[in-house]
Amino acid sequence: MNFYPKNYAIALQKISFHWKSQLILDRISFQVPSGNIVSLLGPSGCGKSTLLHIIAGLLQPDSGDICIHGEEQTNRTGSMGYMQQNDLLFPWKTIVENAALPLVINGIPKKKALQKASRCFPDFGLEGYEHYLPNELSGGMRQRAALLRTYMMDKKIILLDEPFGALDSLTRKKMQIWLLDMYEMLNSTIILVTHDIEEAIYLSDTILVMSALPGKIIHVVESTTPRNKRKKETYLNNEMLAMKKEIVTLFM
């Protein structure tokens, strides 16, 4: 068993994964300190989402270890909040019913679950939309609803798989700002998958850059710009531009 200090929310050591005869992930190792936002950045098809599935426990690696808060974990299913690429809101349920679903699944009576979820709607910018159906909301509002549902899982680790990838650039920027605004309330460690370099720079404390298949960590970029300052930046500042150049160079 490999031990990591409990101040690491997640620690991976030499994670490898094959799909049929194809090596998808090649001995991936990294640690995520509690309370950080870490991005997995890489080209499409490099295994980012597969790695998130493995962290969430939806897939098992062929080899390697995963520690959660200092303890090795093999059964991770349900131990983290996981928001996948599509919002996966049930179209026949209202927004508040979708948001309350994790509570209901955990045995909380439906009426109480709906009340608890409703109290969070103002914080997520959804007040007044409790009884709308998903198809009546804009893309950005649906993503807020999906993140609210993830928040209602009440997990200390949240996995986000390209949460804003389907949005137009203006809406995506607004949602990035909103996510940083919400981060203190979420009080969680976040691992974010993206292939957008500026999004990774804007949101992350640490960026783990992955290669094309077989996916491996080829570079680590640390941000020294505090989150509250990044949030105020309309454009990338000098440090952030230098980070972008550093990352772009890896793929040239």
What are the key terms here?
252 residues, alpha/beta, six-stranded mixed β-sheet, four-stranded antiparallel β-sheet, 10 strands
Q: Order of strands across the biggest sheet?
A: 6-7-8-3-9-10
Q: What structural class should be given to the helix and strand makeup?
A: alpha/beta
Largest sheet: 6 strands, mixed
Query: So what's the oligomer here?
Result: single chain
How many individual β-strands?
A: 10
Query: Considering DSSP H and I runs of 4 or more, what fraction of the residues is helical?
Result: 25-40%
Shape: globular
End-to-end span in angstroms? 39 Å
- Give the amount of beta strand, in percent: 15-25%
Mean pLDDT: 86
TL;DR?
By secondary structure, the protein is α/β, with parallel strands linked by helices. It has helices at 48-56, 95-105, 110-118, 139-151, 169-186, 197-203, 227-232, 238-250; strands at 8-19, 22-33, 37-41, 63-68, 71-72, 81-83, 157-161, 189-194, 206-210, 217-222. Helices cover 34% and strands 25% of the residues.
